[in-house]
Amino acid sequence: MELEAIYENIENEDMKDTCAPQIQSRCEDEGKTRVDLIAEISQLETRVKDLTDEKDQLQRDFDSLNKKGPVCFFVSSELKSWSDSRQYCRDRGADLVIVNTEEKFISSLVKESVWIGLSDTEKEGNMKWVDNSPLKQGFWESNEPNDAGGNEDCIELNPAKSVLNNWNDIPCSATRKWICEN
Length: 182
Description:
Layout lengths: L1 H29 L3 H35 L4 E3 L6 H9 L4 E2 L7 H5 L5 E6 L8 E2 L24 E4 L9 E4 L6 E5 L1
Parallel strand pairs: 3-7
Antiparallel strand pairs: 1-7, 2-7, 3-4, 3-5, 5-6
């Protein structure tokens, strides 16, 4: 029995001597400890999860756009009122652009303020898109919409402002360039 205990201790020592030093020497060669490697693995796992979440969101956005079919935009080079701009779009089988997501590229299409397809002309404070859908999320400038002078019912996008805060209500009779979407 005593011999078996000695043999067992020798086996355990051999395992300790052959495995642990090899792992330790590899780590020391790279200047990393086991704790450093575990932390690095954890960071990589978090990054993979973040990238997977981002990929999933991009896929949802892409799928949403594909449901609409091909989308084309027209950016005007002349100035018109909101109503005249909308009529121009409608005469060509389109309408003023609807911005219902954080679509940063819409702001990148223009260098100056443009009409978008949002207004509260029917009922003050009840913003609706040209397709009659209600506004779900807005990207308003600070203190907007404010209906200054009681006559600001149409919405412009001002690309000089922050992408997520660049909408302003102004009188529909003002003249701006516009974006059509079909």
